[in-house]
């Protein structure tokens, strides 16, 4: 790959980020990346699920309606990325409409969602509607696979692995017709699957050919208990290396885009942080990232206490995002006890990694010592 081209692309990205950043100097504008949990309904009861309390006890009928999403979008500026998950997002028959609203009203360039992949027909038909409606905006679907068949089924339930493969095959067909479709594997790592995860990623890259693999470290308070979070970080490092092996095989035009290193960089920050027993990134949640729960509660991220509910503010995001309480919550970012060892990929690292002192430069990855367990913090 040509390093000069890479640096040129990085400068272009910096230019746009600075322009975006200027919007946030006085009034807190709409963040770059917003995470939406569109439902608390789920057909599975996975062992690693951190949303289980809301799934078990939350009131499903409190979910924001399509009209409320429309009003919400009209109160927001344009933003880059929306992450739409749940629960199982495709359980909402109007899921595609939610995404279309933000694509149209907020020029959202990337919509990303993760699904447990159990409803093949429903997923394929909704994904196709999204892809057809906005051919210039990317839709990225992650199907969850947490290891080989027996392990995945142990974590998510009998028969779930084969069902995901069926959905995967159907989605692959869509990829032939829609260039705005990105299909990837989302794997949550914990003590149940840690020993085989690297081998599984290797197998999946060769046999399923995903556009990428998103490796998530099980976090917060999983249904099966905190102990399943306690993985051996050598296993995590081995997964990073496997993913990077495949990244290096990509075309040079892709390798020259800084965003190609985004997920690897996120994983490296997590590895380094766990190794040094401290959070090594500066979190920009509340500024460049925000969280909107299924019932309209909003927060700087899903971990810190909420700022308030959109319904109490006539669905006006900017009004609620600029209240006194919002400022107080924002001031807690990086200082709250939950932040000290945060490994939150989607709401912590993703909206933060573009901004200094964080970095997604590939050199960071390239220069990692081959055996970190002998390295220094
Ligand atoms: S991890 Fe996802 S699929 Fe599994 S129970 Fe939780 S929300 Fe549902
Ligand atoms: S560091 Fe983690 S817990 Fe703290 S605000 Fe950021 S995402 Fe939330």
From TrEMBL:
Gene3D superfamilies, alphabetized: Aldolase class I (3.20.20.70)
CDD domains linked: Radical_SAM
Keywords of this entry: Iron, Iron-sulfur, Metal-binding, S-adenosyl-L-methionine
SUPFAM superfamilies: Radical SAM enzymes (SSF102114)
Signal peptide: none
Alphabetical list of InterPro entries matching this protein: Aldolase_TIM, Radical_SAM_PqqE_MftC-like, rSAM, rSAM_sf
Residue intervals passing through the bilayer: none
Any GO molecular function: metal ion binding
Residues annotated as domain Radical SAM core: 26-251
PROSITE patterns xrefs: RADICAL_SAM (PS51918)
Protein name as catalogued: Radical SAM core domain-containing protein
Organism expressing this protein natively: Paenibacillus riograndensis
